[in-house]
Amino acid sequence: MALILPTQLVTPCTTRSRTASPSRHGSLSWRRTLAADIISAPSSSSYPSLSPGGGGGCVQVQPLLVKCTAAAANLAPGTPVRPTTILVVGATGTLGRQVVRRALDEGYDVRCLVRPRPAPADFLRDWGAIVVNADLSKPETIPATLVGVHTIIDCATGRPEEPIKTVDWEGKVALIQCAKAMGIQKFIFYSIHNCDKHPEVPLMQIKYCTEKFLQDSGINHTIIRLCGFMQGLIGQYAVPILEDKSVWGTDAPTRIAYMDTQDIARLTFIALRNENVSGKLLTFAGPRAWTNQEVIALCERLAGQDANVTTVPVSVLKFTRQLTRFFEWTNDVADRLAFSEVLSSDTVFSVPMTETYKLLGVDSKDVASLEKYLQDYFTNILKKLKDLKAQSKQSDFYL
Amino acid sequence: MTTTAATALTPATAARYCIQKRGPKPPSEFIRAINLKPSSSGWGAAAHGRSSAPLIVSRASSSSSAPKTTSKGKRKIKKDDGDDPPDDKDEAEEEEKLQQQQPSSVSVIKRLDDVNPVGLGRRSRQIFDEVWRKFSGLGQISRTTRTDDEASLLISEGGPMCEFATPGAQNTTVLVVGATSRVGRIVVRKLMLRGYTVKALVRKADQEIVDMLPTSVDIVTGDVGDPSSLKPAVEGCNKIICCATARSSITGDLNRVDNQGVYNLTKAFQDYNNKLAQLRAGKSSKSKLLLAKFKSADSLDGWVVRQGTYFQDVVAAKYDGGMDAKFEFSDSGDAVFSGYVFTRGGYVELSKKLSLTLGSTLDRYEGLVLSVGGNGRSYVIILEAGPSADPDQSKMYFARISTKVGFCRRPIEGPVRTKQDLRSFQLILEYIKALPTGQETDFILISCTGSGIDSSRREQVLRAKKAGEDSLRRSGLGYTIVRPGPLMEEPGGQRALVFDQGNRISQAISCADVADICVKALHDSTARNKSFDVCYEYVAETGKELYELVAHLPDKANNYLTPALSVLEKNT
């Protein structure tokens, strides 16, 4: 397993140098430098850390070896980029779509970088955003999308089913380097709270390394660390409870301060315009931290019905993770389960927000609480269900 | 087996998406999906016994499960490619392993034994996937279950959980004129986000412009200078936002777009309203009520000329030249009220008792439009309303109008007419109409304050804009006229705004803020029949504050428009 890894790191880089378009040769010279760096670097220092099954058990990415060597963009006079043009990476995601929506509403011209796929993201176009096709895992597709962009907001993360590294590490490195080379004037990166404290979780480690990489790149940036999204709870708990399906929870004592993605998007744009925040690391957290069991209890109360809860001890999760790590093809699964390490560590994913609110000039009352959010959801959906029930008596509407 | 399951499931996902969004999909896919329905757990649950209601919910959840299912298939395929022999063993091992940990999943699978054996394999796979998805989801914190495009309508796309949701947006069609302008572009996006149906009037529908607008905007080609092209544009519209402006400051251009263009639009819209009203055999609630029309000698019947003085001054009266007035139909076909008033404190008046058809009152009307031509004097209009039997209870509405030399038209609040002048006067009357009242604004016009325009052309620009504003005020439509300061291309919602009347603002404003005001004004009753200037807050140096203005910082929660506008005067 360990032997495969360096090649995984290297392959995309060589692809990059191969595919550098001759016309952009000058500005994109970083590709070659980067490739050379990576090829030489792992041989010296990153091998020893890659003991199979040890440590985090997965790829110990050594990001600091990859220096952002992109030449600063040629800032010769030309048409200045309008400061209202932004590029949102990962625009179809839970957070990304809220960011796009907020940006459009505030009058930005929004470009969305989405992967080419058969069913295009029509809703983004419907809102008035411009959709460009590119894939972070294919770095040669990136530069063209950055032309004329002032700010990049990066909300992308790999899909659960794909290896964490391709998008979250290699893709991000390519994106940041492109941004640097093309003179992007602001970069906003979403990371995970406490990612520096849990190097054993691959995604968190990658996020932390990306933060470092971004800081080293010298781009004008803001890093925003997030805890958890309220929107995620709907699919995880609220819907199964309404459907009388079993809800799976853990007995983990971890508390997470969930936050509404609409609030995150709102605060992001306040931060984006605030020059004092430039180059800083902000953490956004919800008003209160909740355990898994508390959330389920809250959903039960609001839905007015008991949930069929299956509680899985964290130890089982950990065991499965250990088990899945043994096979190469289950490695992705192991990576996904890696958070069990965090869950068992009794961490609180929350942070006092008073300082941040003050810095951004935001009233804490404007930030939605989980009770309010879920209450709205249940009120609305129960009403909708009632309407549908009334309708369905008249006709068989799903045919 | 794994391969077929994976490919078969993908169309099912697509079809769910298709049904929910009602998007166009090839029918073949659709049929395939329906065939597959019984095998999918979500659909199965809905089809058995459970009423159709939970379907939406199950869609939401199954949609999140679907990508995972597919992915699992993919992963297995990949593995198939690589090492063939240990394949089945691996899978069995994995399954077994999980079943040990999850006794509940074993029981679920057992329960399925009595089902059709053909679907058994596929079904057990799905259940396994579901269990596995939930299980592995437990190990997550910050990652949400991917709901992809089929996300519940409640949270996205203008559902009630969306912060932009506007009640009534679904049933409102808005025509945006000048949709490609700086403000218009943002207005269109804002309307789309809020779930309005949007029509966009553009001059040329070439690819570049189509790409600029959201895909589901209904694009109509037309020119405000050409009345016939506006007919299809206003069809089906409830409201109009006009962000168009002349491209140059050439007088002809200004006149065509800013003046005549607005007139054409209001006319086309009123025509359409009247057409609708005819269809339901009624009168458009937006049409004006004709109170008097002076087009023939007969129409002057009933109008009485009277004279009097406000106070008795015997001494002064001796030296007065007296006064006289007449109201007659001239040879040129105009009804002319003319005469002279030399008496101090004296007045002449022209009045008539309004004869409204039985049962109708002026309750539904909130203003009068007079088409008159004066000679530069000012007049006072008085409308007296109340029970005719008891004059003590009647209410008087006053309005002073000044006439310019030449022909002009002005809407006046508080109705009927009398005029007062100290010298000789002449007033040509054409018609008097009452403007209907209403809840919301029908037409939002973006005008300008004149600041920021090259001073050599300012006058011409303002004249055209004013003329356009006037034709809108007279149209009988509920109007909101926004006069922003110089427009800046920057994000909105950052700075406090100042709403004012009287052309004394000095600051700029961002296009996005103007767009926001337009969208907010659509359903705001305080915005109806108002004209106002708006700009960024001006931070005066201490000691130099000239006047006090109320500033409002736009924010998510607060509706800044209502309090700001409620203090401003109507019918301006």
Automatic annotation (TrEMBL), chain A:
<dbReference type="InterPro" id="IPR044256">
    <property type="entry name" value="HCF244-like"/>
</dbReference>
<dbReference type="GO" id="GO:0015979">
    <property type="term" value="P:photosynthesis"/>
</dbReference>
<dbReference type="Pfam" id="PF05368">
    <property type="entry name" value="NmrA"/>
</dbReference>
<keyword id="KW-0602">Photosynthesis</keyword>
<feature type="domain" description="NmrA-like">
    <location>
        <begin position="84"/>
        <end position="334"/>
    </location>
</feature>
<dbReference type="GO" id="GO:0009536">
    <property type="term" value="C:plastid"/>
</dbReference>
<keyword id="KW-0934">Plastid</keyword>
<dbReference type="GO" id="GO:0009523">
    <property type="term" value="C:photosystem II"/>
</dbReference>
<dbReference type="InterPro" id="IPR008030">
    <property type="entry name" value="NmrA-like"/>
</dbReference>
<keyword id="KW-0604">Photosystem II</keyword>
<protein>
    <recommendedName>
        <fullName>NmrA-like domain-containing protein</fullName>
    </recommendedName>
</protein>
<dbReference type="InterPro" id="IPR036291">
    <property type="entry name" value="NAD(P)-bd_dom_sf"/>
</dbReference>
TrEMBL record, chain B:
<dbReference type="InterPro" id="IPR036291">
    <property type="entry name" value="NAD(P)-bd_dom_sf"/>
</dbReference>
<feature type="compositionally biased region" description="Acidic residues">
    <location>
        <begin position="82"/>
        <end position="96"/>
    </location>
</feature>
<feature type="domain" description="NAD(P)-binding">
    <location>
        <begin position="178"/>
        <end position="271"/>
    </location>
</feature>
<feature type="domain" description="NADH:ubiquinone oxidoreductase intermediate-associated protein 30">
    <location>
        <begin position="321"/>
        <end position="403"/>
    </location>
</feature>
<dbReference type="InterPro" id="IPR013857">
    <property type="entry name" value="NADH-UbQ_OxRdtase-assoc_prot30"/>
</dbReference>
<dbReference type="InterPro" id="IPR016040">
    <property type="entry name" value="NAD(P)-bd_dom"/>
</dbReference>
<dbReference type="Pfam" id="PF13460">
    <property type="entry name" value="NAD_binding_10"/>
</dbReference>
<feature type="region of interest" description="Disordered">
    <location>
        <begin position="39"/>
        <end position="107"/>
    </location>
</feature>
<feature type="domain" description="NAD(P)-binding">
    <location>
        <begin position="458"/>
        <end position="524"/>
    </location>
</feature>
<protein>
    <submittedName>
        <fullName>Uncharacterized protein</fullName>
    </submittedName>
</protein>
<dbReference type="Pfam" id="PF08547">
    <property type="entry name" value="CIA30"/>
</dbReference>
<feature type="compositionally biased region" description="Low complexity">
    <location>
        <begin position="51"/>
        <end position="66"/>
    </location>
</feature>
